[in-house]
Amino acid sequence: MNGKTSSESVATANSSGRNAPKETRNKNGISVVATTPVIGDIASNIGRGRATVTTLIPPGSDPHSYEPTLHNIRDIARARLVLSNGLLLEEQRMARAVTANLAPDATHKAVAEEAPKYGARIIPLVEDLSLSTIWLGMRVQGKDSARSTITIEATDFTGPGNISAFLTGTFGAPTPYINTADGLNKHDKIDLPADAHTHMSWAFSKPGMYTLTLRARVNTPGASRDLGSATYTFAVGTTPKKVFTHVLNHGHMDIATSFNKGLGFWGDDQSGQSKTARWYPAEDSVVVVPDVALAPIPTDPAYRFLGRPGHNTYLLAQAVLGKHVHGEIDPHMWLDPQAGEAYIGVIRDALIGTDPQGRGTYEANARKYVEKLRRVRDYSAQVLARVPEKNRNLITTHDGFGYLAHAFGLKVAGFVTRNPAIQPSARDAIALNRTIATLGVPAVFVEPTATAHVGELVQVARTHGVSVCSIYSESFTKEVPDYLALLATNARNISTCLNPEALAPPDFHDTAS
């Protein structure tokens, strides 16, 4: 019992014994326990003909909240191999039950934690969705002379509210450089050395379209030279009516002054096709400030230039620090078929390590299962390609679908709360409502097997007259009985609900199996 008495181990269990675990039995096979339905299904397919696989968390239950039963404790103690997802997916008492009751000669494998070694990409969980917006700094490209400085001055602006650009110091004190609330004058500027860069925070007091005209000049001792001007456009909590060549909405971007090109933007490639930074002309570009950027103005009097304390403003934060929960990786990897292949590899090798004589069976089963998974992946890509670009936004109850979105070119546009265990704030509710209204999404998505925050999202959807559709994450139902069906059903539901004016795509039929 790994140093714990049986009474200590049993104390971690839910003694009601409800929801008996699912078992796929092979009379002569090794005993394998999987914590979640997804991992249990994958293990059953790979171990077919040789392993007896018991799934602890029954279909229809939520791994985030499921507590182990006495039956679960017994199954763990008898297993030769225990497979969990890991990365904090399972409820803590389930995780403790596994470690406390694992037999001395048994193996425990946390599949998601091993998956990156097999080619799975990892995505950090977003702690604050408002910090997943574009990071907008200022930059001077090139060198003029060792003693030159470049002055970037705000000369004009338009918009329904005020624009502020400021730096936050080490101890949190803000220094405003541009603030339109009191009009523009010679003080609305920032000075940078040649070939320098700085992070900045940007605030917009109301939703709508803004423009800000900046002029740059290079200063050397006894002389000054004009570098030109440019007008920058911001879509704050709204969708621009004009079509822009470049929509800047993620990654690191700088308002840049170049000695050769004048003023524009310099930053991450927005198409995702290159990791190399590039130049964007200001007149052809728009910076998108989404509703999730809504943030309360601090009560510190130093922030009074932004407005009244406690009121909301649209904020592009100064730096990337704090964007993610420290060290916390999104555990829902299997929703990306590429990671699904990695799960297959981890489980195959874990079975071989436990039962070397079964290598041939496990390898053959894994190859066949990978082929099926790839057919589901191809089907998913085809049906999701039908969704128009303007509708490729996922709004769900919690932040659990980043892998699915990344795999198929969708965007996680909003959720009720980051984690099912966290209650949404008033700001979260306001931002979610504005996101749905601004994006004009045709549907939001809830998990049929989940309960946390479903009511909140359904109510918001009704308020805005949008559809509520099903999406599956950790568990199965009678209609969605296995992992491959889960992937295919998600793709079909998303395609149908986000493209409601088109014919629904066909169901997935694996004619090759």
Features:
3 domains; single chain; 513 residues; 26% helix; 11 helices; alpha/beta; five-stranded mixed sheet; Rossmann fold; six-stranded mixed sheet; disordered N terminus
Total domain modules: 3
For the biggest β-sheet, the strand order reads 11-8-14-15-20-16
Number of helices: 11
Number of DSSP E strands: 27
- Mean pLDDT over the full residue set: 87
Distance between the termini: 43 Å
Categorize the overall geometry.
Answer: elongated
Structural class based on helices, strands and sheet pairing:
alpha/beta
Strand content bin: 25-35%
Q: Main sheet?
A: 6 strands, mixed
Radius of gyration: 27 Å
How helical, in percent, are the residues? Answer: 25-40%
Poorly predicted runs of 5 or more residues: 1-20, 320-327
How is this structure best summarized?
By secondary structure, the chain is an alpha/beta fold. It has eleven helices and 27 strands. The protein folds into three domains: 6-122 and 331-375, Rossmann fold; 129-322, no CATH class; 380-498, Rossmann fold (3-Layer(aba) Sandwich), CATH 3.40.50.1980.
Describe the structure.
- One of its GO terms (cellular component) is cell envelope.
- This is Anchored repeat ABC transporter, substrate-binding protein.
- InterPro entries: ABC_LPXTG_lipo_actinobac, AdhesinB, Bact_metal-bind_prot9, Lipoprotein_PsaA-like, Surface-anchored_actinobac, ZnuA-like.
- It comes from Actinotignum urinale.
- With about 525 residues, this protein is α/β, with parallel strands linked by helices.
- The protein has 3 domains: about 5-120 and about 330-375, Nitrogenase molybdenum iron protein domain (Rossmann fold); about 130-320, no CATH class; about 380-500, Rossmann fold.
- About 25% of the residues lie in helices and about 30% in strands.
- The chain has 11 helices and 27 strands.
- The strands form 7 sheets. It has a 6-stranded mixed sheet, with no helix packed on it. Strands 1-3-2-4-5 form a 5-stranded mixed sheet, sandwiched between helices.
- Helix 2 packs across helix 7 and helix 7 (about 360-385) runs parallel beside helix 11.
- The chain starts with 5 loop residues before the first helix and ends in a 15-residue tail after the last helix.
- The model is unreliable at about 1-20 and about 320-325 (pLDDT under 50).
